[in-house]
Amino acid sequence: MSKLNKDILFLIFEEFQYDSKSLFSCLMVNRFWCETVIPILWRNPWCYDIKYYDKDYLFIIIASYLSDDIKEFLKRLGIQKPLVSRKSLLFDYLSFCRNVDINVLSSIISTGSSSTNHQLFLQQEFCVVFMKNCQELKYFDMRSLKHQIFHFPEAKLCFESLYELKCDTSIDVSYFYGLARICQHIQKLMIINITNEESNLGIVKLIEVQKNLRHFAWVDFFDGYISKVDPYKEILLALEKKADTIDYLGIYLECLDHTLQKVLPKFHKIKTLITSFRNFSEEQLKVCVYHDLEIFKIDYYDLKAASIIIENSGGRLKKFFLVSYELDDYVDDFEKDSLIFIRKVYENCPLIEYLSHAFTPSKKHLSEFENLLKVCQNLKLLTLILCDMERVITGDENILEIGEDLLKVLARSAPTSLREIRFLYGFKFSLEALEEFLEKWRGRPAITILTIDPIYKGENYKNLINKYKDNGVIKDFRCDYFINLINILNMDPIY
Fold first, then answer.
1. Dihedral pair phi/psi, residue 473, rounded to 5°
2. DSSP readout, 377-444?
3. How far apart are CA 172 and CA 131, in angstroms?
4. Contacts for 286-292 with beta carbons within 8 Å, 24 or more apart?
5. What is d(CA 455, CA 51) in angstroms, rounded to the nearest whole number?
6. Which letter, b or e, does each residue of 228-261 get, where b requires 16 or more Cβ atoms within 10 Å of its Cβ?
7. Contact criterion met (CB below 8 Å) for 382 and 418
8. Which InterPro entries match (predicted)?
9. Under DSSP, is residue 234 helix (H, G, I), strand (E, B) or coil?
10. What pLDDT, in 10s, does the model give residues 286-344?
11. Contact 40, 12 (CB under 8 A)
12. What's the N-to-C CA distance of the chain in angstroms?
C-alpha cells in the first residue's frame, strides 16, 4: 500500500467515504495518506456518525476562516474558543467541501455559545464563510436556516450549481423565492412537510423554475389534520409540469388529496415510485402506466393497487417494498388481494430481486408463492409478513405448522440467487423444521435470516444456528427488536 500513488489511494479511500472509522484510521498512517483522505472526509463532513455538538475542533476550524474583525467581535461577546488563523491550518478544509448541512452546522455552533442571539449571528457568519470558500456547492440541507443568505454577493456563484436540496415547510417563504432566483438546475429536491398549513408558495416557485428536476420527494411529518380541501394542489400542479424529467417520485401524504389522482398518471418516465393510492378508483389506477418502473414502494393495504400498477408496468421492476408493516387494521378482501398480487408479480416481474409480501397462510397462497419462487429466478431478498394476527397474538400452535410448510416451499423452490430472508411478524419454526430447512439449503450460497421472534434466542436454537454458521450454510441469523428491524427494512427511504 505504501507504494501506491495518490490517485490509486484516492480511489481506494473513496470506497470508504461513508465509513468514518476506517477513514479516520487512515489519517494516522502517514502524511501522504492524510493528504489523500482529507479531501474525501471534507467533501461531506456532516454525514458521519459522530456527536457534532461535542466537537470543538470543528468550530475552531470553521471559525478560523472568519475575518479578524469578526473574530475580535466574538471575543467581545465572550466566546472563549481559541480562534486560530486560517494560515495555521494544515489544509484548506473548506475548499474541499461540497455539502452544507445547516442542522449539523447549528450543532457545531452551539459549542461556541449557548446564547440564542450569538448562535443566530454565528450561523449567518458561518454561512458566509462557506459561500466564500466552497468552490462548488452541490448539496444543501437548509433545515433550521434562520437567515436569508441568498441575497449575499457570494450566493450566486456558490448556489447556481446546486444539485441536491433538502428542506422543510417551516422555512420562511421568502427564502425559497431567494433560492429560486439563483438555483435553476437542482436535480434532487426533498421536502419534509412539518406544518398543517396551506402550501408554501415559495416552494411552488422553486419547483417551477427548475430545468432538470429528476428526483422529487415529499413526506408529511406533522400531527393533526389540514382543514383546507386539496392542501397540496399548488405543489402538485407545479410538479406536474416537470413530469417529463422526473424519474424518482416519492410522495407520502397524511391527508386525502384529489389532485394527486389527476397528477400521478402524468409521470410516465419514473423509475422509482413511493406513494399511497388511498381512495384511487380502479379506473384511476389503470391509467397509471409506468413502463420504466424499477423500484416500487407502497402501503401493505394497497396490494390491490400494487397489482394493477405492476400489471401495467413494463416488466422491469426489480425492487418492491412495503411502506407500512403495521397490520392491526382490518383490510377488506385482503386475502383475495394478496393472492392476486402474488400472481401479478410472477406474471409481470421476471427481473424482481427484492420483494416484500404480506399474505395469509392458506394452501392456495403457499402454492402460488411457490410458483413465484420458480418463475422469479433473480430474487435476492425476501421480506415475508404473516397476516393472521389472531393466531400470532394468541400463540396458536398452528403457527409452527404454517412455518414448517413455508420452509419446505423455500427449500424446495427458492432460486439459487436468494441471499436473505426477513420474517416480519408471525412465522415460527420448530427446532426440527429449521434444522431440516438448513440441511436442505446446504450447497447453496450462505443465507442471511432476520426475525423479530425471541424464540430463536433460546440455547437450543443458538447451538443449531452456530452449527450451520460454522458449516457455511448461514451467513447471518439475527433476532432483533421490532423497531430495529423496521429501520433495517426501510432500505429505500424517502428522505
1. -85, -40
2. TT--EEEEEE--HHHHHHT-THHHHHHHHHHHHHHHH--TT--EEEEESS----HHHHHHHHHHHTTS
3. 20
4. 286/312, 288/264, 288/312, 289/265, 289/313, 290/314, 291/316, 292/247, 292/316
5. 36
6. eeebbbbbbbbbbebbeebbbbbbbbbbebebbb
7. yes
8. LRR_dom_sf
9. helix
10. 999 999 999 999 876 788 999 999 999 999 999 999 876 555 455 678 888 899 999 99
11. no
12. 37
Distance CA 27, CA 32 (A): 9
| Better-scored residue on pLDDT, 242 or 52 | 242
Angle between helices 334-348 and 363-375 (to 10 degrees): 20
Q: Which residues are registered as beta bridge partners of 216?
A: 189, 249
How many residues in the chain?
Answer: 495
Q: What's the rounded Cα separation, in Å, for the pair 181 and 174?
A: 11
Amino acid at 214: R
Which three cell numbers, joined as nine digits, stand for 265? 398518471
Residue bearing cell 450543532: 107
Q: What is the pTM of this model?
A: 0.87
Beta-carbon count within 10 A of 265 CB: 16
d(CA 291, CA 438): 39
Identify whether the C-beta of residue 73 lies closer than 8 Å to the C-beta of residue 121.
Answer: no
Residues 139 and 29: their CA atoms lie apart, in Å, by 30
